[in-house]
């Protein structure tokens, strides 16, 4: 009787694991690494930036973009130059090659 109980519990555990993994759906990334973007902001800054990295956090894609341009003087860390932003904060830059 205990062996049949273990089989039932084992199958329940497996189905629970399957349900959890099937409920986790990865959405597609809106931007690619190396793509040119602009930060969506209230001021009229129109500097183009590059997507330097992509990270999945809590089922949402976040993008590393350069917050400040590289300085000519030595920089001690990269942390103060990069921003981690959501895709809703970015605008794709479209090039017109016919110009």
UniProtKB/TrEMBL annotation:
It comes from the Bacteria. Residues 1-26 are annotated as: Disordered. It holds the Pfam family DUF1392. This is DUF1392 domain-containing protein. It comes from Komarekiella delphini-convector SJRDD-AB1. The lineage of its organism: Bacteria, Bacillati, Cyanobacteriota, Cyanophyceae, Nostocales.
């Amino acid at each position: 009787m205990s062996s049949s109980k273990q089989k039932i519990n084992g199958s329940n555990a497996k189905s629970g694991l399957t349900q959890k993994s099937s409920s986790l759906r990865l959405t597609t990334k809106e931007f690619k690494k190396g793509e040119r973007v602009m930060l969506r902001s209230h001021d009229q800054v129109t500097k183009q930036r590059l997507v330097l990295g992509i990270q999945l956090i809590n089922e949402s894609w976040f993008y590393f973009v350069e917050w400040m341009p590289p300085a000519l003087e030595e920089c001690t860390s990269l942390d103060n130059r990069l921003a981690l932003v959501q895709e809703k904060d970015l605008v794709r830059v479209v090039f017109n090659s016919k110009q």
